[in-house]
Amino acid sequence: MPTKLQLLQMHAEALYVHDASGRMLRSNEPGDVPAPRVYLGRTTEGIIWRYRHDLPEELVAVCEAILADEPVPVDIERQAVSIRSLFIELLRHAPVGYMWEGPAWYFPERIDAPTGVEVVMVEPSMRFSGDRFTWLVDELELCHPAFVVLDGDRIVSLCHSSRNTPVAAEAGVETLEGYRGRGYAVAVVAAWAREVRAQGRIPLYSTHWENLASQGVARRLGLIPYAADMHLP
Question: Which domains occur in the chain, in start order?
Answer without folding.
Answer: 4-105 (no CATH), 120-223 (3.40.630.30)
